[in-house]
Amino acid sequence: AVTYEPMRNYLDLVYIGIISIGTPPQEFRVVLDTGSSVLWVPSIYCSSPACAHHKAFNPLRSSTFLVSGRPVNVAYGSGEMSGFLAYDTVRIGDLTVVAQAFGLSLEEPGIFMEYAVFDGILGLGYPNLGLQGITPVFDNLWLQGLIPQNLFAFYLSSKDEKGSMLMLGGVDPSYYHGELHWVPVSKPSYWQLAVDSISMNGEVIACDGGCQGIMDTGTSLLTGPRSSIVNIQNLIGAKASGDGEYFLKCDTINTLPDIVFTIGSVTYPVPASAYIRKDRSHNCRSNFEEGMDDPSDPEMWVLGDVFLRLYFTVFDRANNRIGLAPAA
Amino acid sequence: CLVKIPLMKIKSMRENLRESQVLKDYLEKYPRSRAHVLLEQRRNP
Question: How many CB atoms lie within 10 A of CB A311?
């Protein structure tokens, strides 16, 4: 049982939620990730140094634990985990999913996760993105009748440590302005949709003639094909550093124009204040990043947290569509 | 019946690596092509 998540890079992730597994519950901090479909956390049997830095699940302390023994390997853009499959009760908010399949890591090679603040990952992608024959957490929430609507939504706050929200089974309109614009999911695996174009000052600068985009809470930045990203970095005056990051002058935040994503004939501007990030040392970096080249789809963009902070997003499994509206 | 799960904004792994002055070493040792290599292995086992 191997799943590959070639576009995953958790280096810049900043949003986590708390779930618990087992009876009595054991708490974990997890990334709620629309770009993958597997739930996994470290186990007490994991011997990697990375596991020592995180909460580890102890099956011996759970009366509802069932082991499958099926091996699990998940490869990410920035590392991998290997372990085995198990079943137990998972609690997310007030909801309790019984007999939820999840991975328990035995090994987290390298220093992937060693510096991560989260313990594990909870995937919210389509089932076919995960392990064959395994029902992901969100599917079980629906199948076990725990939520009234087969959809979820993300509100990601840019300012506060608190305030960001995952909504399960419904949408609270106070988190967005105006109307939701719905776009069909073009390939139900990732939360993937068709992007019409990417433009600046009214001129198309990337995705000319259309491309595909993935709405991904598990990616922080805006990633795209190498040639397009290099073009955009040049247009905004960003210079490459030795470690793959692009720096620019901080005062350009006030002068650079919006970069506009057109999706379903609706424009979604991303201002310079969003596509440039300033760190605590007052260095400014571009939030555009080269994505993993996917030979099967060379024009693939990932619209990560940078985009999702600006636009409240509804992930509608019932109708295989994505709703977007300016975040409140 | 809507269930809201609060999310916390945390310091990123990149920031932690940078503050520990191991970011460059990390990126050299674990280039993002790692998953791509694994993907290729799956396609051409």
Answer: 24
For the stretch A25-64, pLDDT in tens is 999 999 999 988 999 999 999 988 888 889 999 999 999 9
A207's torsion region: left (phi>0), alpha (psi -120 to 50) or beta? Answer: left
Residue B13 has pLDDT above 60, yes or no: yes
Q: Do B27 and A243 touch (CB under 8 A)?
A: yes
| Residues A124-156 pLDDT 10s | 999 998 888 899 999 999 999 999 999 999 999
Q: Which residue of A has its CA nearest to B17?
A: A115
Q: What is the per-residue pLDDT across A79-123, written as a single tens digit (0 to 9) for each?
A: 678 899 999 999 999 999 999 999 999 988 766 677 778 899 999
Contact at CB, A11 and B14, closer than 8 angstroms: yes
CB count, 10 Å around CB of A11?
27
The reply to whether A316 belongs to the active site is no
Q: Which of A119, A216, A305, A316 is catalytic?
A: A216
Chain A residue closest to B31 (CA)? A78
| Cβ–Cβ gap A165/B38 under 8 Å | no
Does B22 lie at the interface with A, CB-CB under 8 angstroms? yes
Closest CA of chain A from B12, distance in Å = 5
| Alpha helix segments (H runs only) across A43-200 | 49-52, 137-143
A226-259 pLDDT per residue, tens: 889 999 999 999 998 766 678 999 999 999 999 9
Q: What is the ipTM of this complex?
A: 0.89
Q: Which residues of A touch B10 (CB under 8 A)?
A: 14-16, 117-118, 161
**How many C-beta atoms surround the C-beta of residue A63 within 10 A?**
9
Listed residue (A17, A15, A16, A326) closest to A173, CA to CA: A326
The first and second tokens of residue A172, run together, are: 């609270």
Residue A192 bridge partners (DSSP): A187, A214
In chain B, residues with a C-beta closer than 8 Å to the C-beta of A111 are 22, 26, 29-30
Residue A223 CA to residue A211 CA, distance in Å, equals 13
